[in-house]
Amino acid sequence: MISTVLPAYKYLIEERKLNEDTIRAFHLGYVDHSGEIYLDADYQGKLPQLDKRFYHSTMFPIQDVYGSTVAVSCRPLGPSSTKYINTSYEKADHLYGLSLTYKDILKTQKVYVAEGNLSAITPWQSGLKNVVALLGINISHTQLCLLNRFAKQVCFMVDADKAGENFIEKMRQQIPSRFYDTDMKFSFVTFPKGQDPDSYFQNHTLQDFLALPEQELII
Q1: 219 and 160 Cβ atoms separated by less than 8 Å
Q2: Can you tell me the distance from the alpha carbon of 41 to that of 24, in angstroms, rounded to the nearest whole number?
Q3: For position 128, which CATH number holds?
Q4: 139: helix, coil or strand?
Q5: pLDDT at residue 18 greater than cutoff 80
Q6: pLDDT 10s digits, 116-153
């Protein structure tokens, strides 16, 4: 049983509304004040060396499509000028959650793409199993090729604000025209104003989400 005595699990369960199965599935952990790492017993991967910047934080292991940990992203639990701290890795080569969700993506031939870790985790917990997240604000050729291995339809999940509009415009510019010459289809779904995938799925069902209209992404 995951203990809420550890600050990271208290944060994930009480504030982010994640359950223990979800925490274990994504191998979410805690780095304490001395650098000791707490993870579920099922985790078998190797972790990079963490310096003091990562102490007292919630840890999100970043895994490649094969399930090997390539980096960690940590969210400081104390006062910090940054929201997330990452170990060094090539963000453009990976998609968060793909090693966990690729089978459901293959089954449905559709993938939902979020912008951040929790914006993939919370929808997954609510039943949207064919979801991944970008590891930055851009999408790369490598990431598009990864998606093309598993899905024919890519649907971006977008915040209903200026940042969301900018994100869609950026996707239009960054998806090379040759991907539109394949049988891949691109679309996006916009959340109600003021909500993102994480906040939406905390208060709505999967059926509510699937009823939101999708729009084709046109370049």
Answers
A1: no
A2: 9
A3: 3.40.1360.10
A4: coil
A5: yes
A6: 899 999 999 999 999 999 998 889 999 999 999 999 99
* Whether pLDDT at 56 is above 90: yes
If you average pLDDT over every residue of the chain, what do you get? 92
Residue type, 36: E
Give long-range contacts, CB 8 A cutoff, 24+ apart: 137-144. 137/167, 137/170, 138/92, 138/170, 138/174, 139/113, 139/171, 139/174, 139/175, 140/92, 140/93, 140/174, 141/176, 142/92, 142/93, 143/92, 143/93, 143/94, 143/95, 144/175, 144/176, 144/179
Structure-block tokens of residue 157: 């999940």
User: Nearest 5 degrees, angle CA 195-CA 172-CA 150?
Assistant: 80
**Which tokens is 50 given?**
């963490």
Q: List, in order, residues 6 or more apart from 90 with CB less than 8 Å away.
A: none
Q: Based on the fold, state whether residues 112 and 56 are members of the same structural domain.
A: no
Q: Who's near 96: CB < 8 A, 6+ residues apart?
A: 60, 62, 117, 120, 132, 133, 134, 135
Q: Domain span at residue 151?
A: 98-216
Domain count, the chain: 2
pLDDT band at residue 219 using 50, 70 and 90 as cut-offs:
low
User: pLDDT tens for residues 155-196?
Assistant: 999 888 888 888 889 888 888 877 877 789 999 999 998 899
> Are residues 30 and 67 part of one domain?
yes
